[in-house]
Amino acid sequence: MSDLAHGAHPQGFAHQFEDIEQQRDAGRLGMWVFLVTEILFFGGMFTSYTIYRALHLESFIQGSHQLVVKYGATNTAVLILSSLTMALAIRAAQTGKKKGTIIFWLILTMILGATFIGIKLRFEWFRDYQEGLIPGVQWFYNGPHAPGVRMFMCFYFFMTGLHAIHMVVGLGLLTVLVVMTARNKFSSEYYTPLEVSGLYWHFVDIVWIFLFPLLYLIGGRYQ
Amino acid sequence: MSDHAEQSGHGGHVVPVSTYLLVFLALMVGTALTTWVAYIDLGRWNTVVALTIAVIKMILVVLFFMHVKYATGLTRVVILAGFFWLGIMITLSCSDELTRTWEIVPQSWLPTTNMIIPMISRLF
Amino acid sequence: MSTAIAEIHETPAESGVNYLNATYGIKSWLLTLDHKRIGLLYLGSITLMFFVGGMAAVMMRLHLVEPQGALFEPETYNKMFSTHGIIMVFFFLVPSIPATLGNFLIPLMIGARDVAFPKLNLLSWYIFITGAALALYATLSGGVDTGWTFYPPYSSLYSHTHVVAVALGVFIAGFSSILTGLNFIVTIHKMRAPGMTWFRLPLFIWAMYATSLIFVLGTPVIAITLFLLGMERILHVGIFDPAVGGDPLLFQHLFWFYSHPAVYIMILPGMGVISELITAFSRKKIFGYAFVAFSSLSIAVISFIVWGHHMFVTGQSIYAGLVFSVLSFLVAIPSAVKVFNWTATLYKGSISYEAPMLYALGFIGLFTIGGLTGLFLAALATDVHLNGTYFIVAHFHYVMVGGAVMAYMGGLHFWWPKITGRLYPDLWARIAAAIIFIGFNLTFFPQFVLGYLGMPRRYAIYPSEFQVLNVMSSAGASILGIGYLIPLIYFIWSMRYGPPAGPNPWGAKGLEWTTQSPPLTENFPTIPIVTEDAYNYPSEGAHV
């Protein structure tokens, strides 16, 4: 139970709760439950991917080889670094650092997130457009296993596309957090929005940690 | 009583910066390893190695960056439930999609090496 | 908080403030954060959707009095049954009890002031009406003819109807479910009053918790499924197209992974209501509390591993069919446990037959029939004969209408005095309940026979030897329709003219009955401390 005097709740306290601890717990549990919904949401795509990869492995290998590993690997590193900076932003709030410190780490996270999207758009999707590898939009691949490669590229765009949308939402969340921090909404007593946004950001990172080998490295690159 | 968290008093557990940096390093090493191994011919094992490293990376992010190492049992149950349900979706869907070509009446009652192992190996 | 102006909700007997009159004006409703008002916002929306879906049903039954069809071209008939299914499933049944009674009652029953995330709660209503408005608009512009199941390749390649728009409406409404489920889970875990341990919770809460698990685990999958269908339809990328290596059955797996648990979303809250009604109107504690509580959780869990029983005849492998058939028998067990426990609760209870109890008793009988006929369908061999026939239609209407809707009606009647502070006329309520019961059975029992005799479902025409049964069914439907209109009239009447209800007109147990009717905005003047088990009625022989 809170050791604050009755009525003296910290800033950000919501009155349906009894005390700030209950509010914190509820916020954390709520975000974890939401992340479970996201596991199932992406999970539908992972299920479809698993089935089609099992049924059309050769096509998927061929399709995977159309992607450029160095961009995927670089983006993986970028996101991992952004998870570090996000964790450090939350730690700064936890340990009562100045708001400037928190904002510094948040903005760094945003820059890394934007870098991820920039690399995707400029070096990967734009190039895919030029090479006619976007099914339903610009498709003129005529190498081996064309129908299966088309199927693979669908999965590539749907999965990385949905992931990118989640990244953009994350960037939006970070922007809101920067503004809230600047307005002194957080303290070492109450930083729940930072914490739960961090959970969301790490989740988006984890999705990419799986997308990288599953999309870029099917069948290895040793041929 | 509502189940309030057992986390220490006010903010929750503070993880040392050194831990974060170590985890970060491990994640980067894992990424480099995954990429490097892809260029080596291990046949079916390429995918196994890549996914194993991915799972380890995920566990590190979940335990340390997402603080689950210091979290309540309820949090862990929630996470496990999510993965378990994903497992149900994949397993039971595959139980149909990957068994379409099985013989209707098998030669023996035991669905042994003839069926299940080839089915699983088709995933890799 | 002003009480200066006498509101229609205020009566001379109690001039107190309550959540209905505490603030005024349209903004105070449209921007409310009070779970009780949000419950009422939902009540209005889903009642509208119920009557829209009901109109489609009336049209269908009128059409089917003639073997060659009395009203429509087959293409239009296809749109009728699709509209009926989509609206009733996604925009009425799935949100019905959770969003109305759940929202209203959960904080009251657990001794909290509101749900964990009141703003998310309001957002979920806005999301719901956005999805519903889009689906309604698409329906009025011509709708879809794919059935509520949207199976490709028809829905992706061949149908010339508004598939994407309607699917988008359903997709959007799904997020409303997810947020509601999330809110309920966190609320029940974190905001119970002191002394309200898990095993002192009313069984309605256990049922709502189990339902919320399904909301959270299942709904995201229908979201991704409809997304893929939309992409397929717009871009023709071939995910479900066998010509390019896709599999139409993949859609069905993903679709039913949600849609089967969805039917348990529809029935579990109803079962929770029945537990409350049976105990209140036999003035006896529930028999086997723990069994009923755990059976709710079991139903939620097992519901996720049986979906393939919808695909026995669509091309699924024999092995998967075997697995799903066995698992489908399992799911009947916890449902049966509940029916046994309710019956045992009734035994030697002090039973009274007010309208809510009539609905509860009707539920037990009709749900049992519906559930047992489900077993016919879980068995692979009989399903081959019965699939695609009116037997299935009868089965699911017995559980969804004879079950879920009756439970919903019973719950509305039971908690109406608490929600509005008014009593409805019980005589009319009982008459309506009887009319609904008779109309329901006349509508749907002949359909079991029709299905067994081989009449296919979703057909606009049928062989003339089936006409008598079809006419019976249509006659029943008109009686059923009247039955549903009567409560609409007296409920609205009661809001202005009904006698004031005290805090506990039924003498029932539960924290919600310890508050005034209607409750305060903050529910309780002080948060209660719970010291007794649920349904702590005096045992038989004790001095009342």
Structure description:
Chain A has one domain: Four Helix Bundle (Hemerythrin (Met), subunit A). Chain A is 74% helix and 2% strand. Chain A has six helices and two strands; from the N terminus they run H-H-H-H-E-E-H-H. The radius of gyration of chain A is 21 Å and the shape is elongated. Chain B is flat. The relative contact order of chain B is 0.09. The two termini of chain C are 39 Å apart. Chain C has helices at residues 26-30, 35-63, 74-93, 96-110, 118-140, 154-158, 163-190, 203-235, 248-282, 289-302, 318-346, 355-378, 380-386, 390-420, 426-453, 467-497. With 544 residues, chain C is an all-alpha fold. Chain C has 16 helices and no strands. Chains in contact: A-B, A-C, B-C. The interface between B and C is medium-sized, with 19 and 26 residues.
Provide a short characterization of the protein structure:
With 223 residues, chain A is mainly alpha-helical. Helices cover 74% and strands 2% of the residues of chain A. Chain A contains 6 helices and 2 strands.
Note the topology.
The complex is a heterotrimer of chains A (223), B (124) and C (544).
Chain A: H1 20-55, H2 57-64, H3 69-94, H4 99-130, E1 133-134, E2 138-139, H5 146-182, H6 192-216
Chain B: H1 17-38, H2 45-65, H3 73-97, H4 116-121
Chain C: H1 26-30, H2 35-63, H3 74-93, H4 96-110, H5 118-140, H6 154-158, H7 163-190, H8 203-235, H9 248-282, H10 289-302, H11 318-346, H12 355-378, H13 380-386, H14 390-420, H15 426-453, H16 467-497
Helix pairs in contact in C: 2-3, 2-4, 2-5, 2-16, 4-7, 4-8, 4-14, 5-7, 7-8, 8-9, 8-10, 9-11, 9-12, 9-14, 10-11, 11-12, 12-14, 12-15, 14-15, 15-16
Unreliable stretches of chain A: 1-6
Secondary-structure element pattern of chain C, one letter each = HHHHHHHHHHHHHHHH
On the 0-100 scale, what is the average pLDDT of chain C?
94
Number of strands of chain A: 2
Number of domains of chain A: 1
SS content category of chain A: mainly alpha
- What general form of chain C does the structure show? globular
Keywords:
heterotrimer; A: 223 residues; mainly alpha; Four Helix Bundle (Hemerythrin (Met), subunit A); two-stranded antiparallel sheet; 6 helices; 2 strands; 74% helix; 2% strand; disordered N terminus; C: 544 residues; 16 helices; globular
